[in-house]
Amino acid sequence: MEPNMEYIVAQVTQKEVGRRFQVGPEIIDYILDRQKSHDLEHDQSMLDRMVDSLATSWVNASNFKVALLGMDIVSALVTRLQERFKTQIGTVLPSLIDRLGDTKDQVRDQALSLLLKIMDQAANPQYVWDRMLAGFRHKNNRTREAVCFCLISTLNVYGAHGLTLSKIVPHICHLLGDPTSQVRDGAMNCLVEIYRHVGERVRMDLGKKGLPQSRLNVIFSRFDEVQRSGNMILSSGES
């Protein structure tokens, strides 16, 4: 018997780890095969249940292999649904942000790749970042650092023109005073990357943020280094 949406959602919502490894490839195959999953787009409540379960009990699973498989399934949904996945972004983002700070490189890398894929296929980068800003204040310092790295990756892939950076910069400035040195470094690298793309407007903007002069001096000296190195990009964008 061919699987249908009801069967697939039942497989996604069951908790047995061994069974998940068995059905994961079947779920992905179902999602990507339009003939098999012709009902995927038409039963919104089933789709909502499916994505909610993937986010909360697969991507967030303590077993990292389940988390990776969960992200594979979400990635298949993004491939299949494209912009129709936009309504599900708010459901999966908290789990993906958590995974950006995971202890395993493989999990962190896959979470970052999936976020960039969502920005490419389901919604524009600013739509996603508007919903990711809480990540800058995440309780896990590794996650706060990783959210900075995610912004750098976003700029490198999509440039600055798709982002309203004036919304994001205050959150980065806050992290310049973070108790963890790696987070402070991540925030500094973020500002340098923004400067590479946007130029002197960032310097002027930061001067109005009420940052201590000593901190501004350090930031501006990093900007000067980039300027001298010839590594400026200057895509059109907002600061």
Automatic annotation (TrEMBL):
Domain TOG: 6-232
SMART domains (UniProt xref): TOG
A Pfam entry, by short name: CLASP_N
HEAT-type repeats, residues: 168-206
Name of protein: TOG domain-containing protein
Compartment(s): Cytoplasm, Cytoskeleton
Domain of life: Eukaryota
Keyword annotations: Cytoplasm, Cytoskeleton, Repeat
Keyword Secreted: no
PANTHER family: CLASP, CLIP-ASSOCIATING PROTEIN 1
InterPro entries assigned: ARM-like, ARM-type_fold, CLASP_N_dom, HEAT_type_2, TOG
